[in-house]
Amino acid sequence: MSFDIALSGIQAINEQLNTVSNNIANAATYGFKSSRANFASVMAGTSPNGVEIGSITQNISTNGSTQTTGRALDAAIDGRGFFVSVNNQGTTQYSRVGIFSTDAKGILIDSNGNKVQGYGPTKNGARGAMGDVQIPTGQIPAAATTGIAYTGNLSADWTVPATAFDSTKSDSYNMVKQSIVYDSIGTQHTLSQYFVKADADTVNVYYSMDGTAVDASSATPAELKFDTTGALVSTAGNTIPYAATAGGAAAGSVTIDYKGTTRFAGEAATTTNRSDGYASGSFVGVELAADGSLVAKYSNDQSQVVGTIALATFANEGALSAISETSWVANAASGDALVDPPGVGLSGKLSTGALEGSNVDITSELVGLMTSQRNYQANSKVLTTENQMMQALMQAL
């Protein structure tokens, strides 16, 4: 009987060593969760009959350290949750490994080629449908300029020009500034603003588009009025229409907002000269934001949120069934997945440009190795002692 008990101890320790060695081997594996072999006593009726490995549990709830990678589509979960993906067999699985890329069709995939699940773009304030995340890789259309924000100081030291305004004569205006305007097909135009002091509290503004005077402006310029403290109190005529172009662009208009412009003594200065609208742009890449948003970047310096990665949480995440060292599937014990964007509900936020490392504690594993070695030696000693006793018995007979 003692032979069998000692042998069961050696067999159980060998299984434990497999678990420990697997932990140590995966100490550098992203998203790996360490396992523990749990010993259980074996009984034969009411008599002890040795030991066995009753179960192996994974330490899923303990997060590994965050390791910075700098890659735009790497992400670590700061808190609870799992990335959701669907493999080629249609099985939904969960992982803490946030290494993402796009396939040839522009679909977001994980490091194993599984399709990452998330939400489509938000429309009218409503979150998009849950499913595969499609990254559009084509061009985005141009947007015509409809407004310009201009802020500056129109010097109170200016004098009224002696000659009537003429854009070809620099002595007929006090200052000129250019702004960029895009038409409906993305062609860039230059809108010039000619500032002319009219009297002590009024500055007129004349406009030209690509060097050609705007008819409405030449007839009646925009009028900026200031109070005695130099603050802008009213504007008029600051919407500039333009005609359709030979290139096929539609007619349009641009409204210039002069809010914040002042009339103080000293030098004239411009602090804001910003246009909306943009030319068409080609896709250049995609980045992941901390809230899970996938932001597509385009060559015209524009960006668009094209989807949001989803995270899943569970009532009993420790009961998830492992299908690989870093992936799990749900079961009855774990409960159904609760899916939300990062930072919503129980889901943690994302640390972008980083990955979660293994949660293996090398020091504890090495201590476990030494303990296993002593236990192995003790069980081996039992076998040796039992063998010596049997030999002594046989010699006595």
How would you portray this structure in words?
16% of the residues lie in helices and 39% in strands. It has 397 residues and is an alpha+beta fold. It folds into 3 domains: 2-61 and 358-396, no CATH class; 66-140 and 282-356, no CATH class; 147-275, Flagellar hook protein FlgE (Tick-borne Encephalitis virus Glycoprotein, domain 1), CATH 2.60.98.20. The strands form 7 sheets. Strands 5, 6, 9, 10, 11, 22, 23, 24, 25, 26, 27 and 28 form a 12-stranded antiparallel beta sheet that branches. Helix 1 packs antiparallel against helix 3. The longest helix is centred in the C-terminal third of the chain and has 35 residues, at 362-396. The model has no long low-confidence stretch (mean pLDDT 90).
**Low-confidence runs (pLDDT<50, min 5 residues)?**
none
| Main beta sheet strand tally, sense and closure | 12 strands, antiparallel
- Fraction of residues in helix: 10-25%
Total helix count?
A: 3
Mean pLDDT: 90
Overall geometric form: rod-shaped
Distance separating the two termini: 21 Å
Q: How many DSSP E strands?
A: 30
Class derived from helix and strand content = alpha+beta
Quote the beta fraction.
35-45%
Radius of gyration: 36 Å
Q: Number of domains in the coordinates? A: 3
Give a quick set of tags describing it.
single chain; 397 residues; alpha+beta; Tick-borne Encephalitis virus Glycoprotein, domain 1; six-stranded antiparallel beta sheet; 3 helices
